[in-house]
Amino acid sequence: MWLFSLACRYGTMRDNVISLKVVLANGDIVKTASRARKSAYGYDLTRLMIGSEGNLGVVSEVTLWLQKIPVHSVVAMCNFPTIKDAVDVAIATMLSEAYSREQTQIFQRIVSEHNGSGFVFAEDPEAKKEFWKIRKEALWACFAMEPNFEAMISVSSNIEISLNENVCVPLSHLSELISRSKQELDASPLVCTVIGHAGDGNFHSYSQEEQRGEAERLNQFLVYTALSMEGTCTGEHGVGTGKMKYLEKELGKEALKTMKRIKTALDPNNIMNPGKLIPPRVCF
User: Fold this and answer.
1) How many helices (H) and strands (E) does the chain have?
2) In what helix (H) or strand (E) does residue 122 lie, and over which residues does it extend?
3) Contacts of residue 142, Cβ cutoff 8 Å, sequence gap at least 6
4) 8 A C-beta contact, residue 256 and residue 281
5) CA distances from 174 to 18, 99, 201 (A)
6) Where are the alpha helices (DSSP H) in 171-271?
7) DSSP assignment, residue 153?
């Protein structure tokens, strides 16, 4: 699993895939790229397949970049009086060019400039694990707020117990998006929380469902607000069936028609993960 904390520095999973072997609908086996560090060859078949959600073929082999574990790393934690202060610090930190120990000092200064308090950091491996444990268990802490609910996450809009939205916007719009979203979530009768890995412009909102209609309304508010800021309806969870209805708004009809043409050319009988990714109403 490609962790959210690595995406800021090393890119997302698709940035770390060198090549694929893919079995197409007609049985052909396609190698999408060589292992060269760079290439100016034709279409980027690797990214096409990564973004297809199994809609174009079955991946049988993956060649990945191996990233070195940093010799020195620091984990820090602090508090802020407002969401905006916290997000602004994340953005300012991402724009700084220092790393590790030097970055810790810069980060501490940025925190103090945005009303931050309680700044602590750890360099010892065990202490860093404890810091990360807080973040990695945040979801379960959310469910503990309402222990009578079953812990279930749905990444589509077809929710049963809880709503998990994962919109993503350019960093320049992140503070505004989270602030507007938090106001809307706070005004809702549902129990809602916001968790982010803000360095890549991505955040999640979790709301436990007591009223399905209200959960759906919040979901659409978050998505359309992100799209209005040149963002995306899905930063990492994919489209599947739940996000198909937002693709035309995000990409436009012509982009969807192009995807449908590619799908039809490679899978004319529609046997590869049918009914996913491309809205069925799209035609060309």
Assistant:
1) 10, 8
2) strand 117-122
3) 193, 195, 206, 208
4) no
5) 30, 23, 6
6) 171-187, 212-228, 244-251, 253-266
7) -
Q: Which amino acid appears at position 266 of this protein?
A: L
What pTM, to 2 d.p., does this model score?
Answer: 0.77
Q: What's the pLDDT tens digit per position in 9-51?
A: 777 788 899 999 999 999 999 999 998 888 888 899 999 999 8
As a whole number, the mean pLDDT across the chain is: 82
Closest C-alpha to 99, from 201, 230, 10, 186? 10
- Smallest CA-to-CA distance from 198 within 230, 153, 168 is with 168
Q: Are 250 and 232 in contact (CB under 8 A)?
A: yes
**156-180: buried (b, 16+ CB within 10 Å) or exposed (e) per residue?**
bbebeebbbbbbbbebebbbebbee
Higher per-residue confidence, 42 vs 138: 42
Q: Which two tokens stand for residue 119?
A: 């700044």
Q: Give dist(CA 210, CA 190) in Å, integer.
A: 7
Q: What is the reported pLDDT for 4?
A: 56
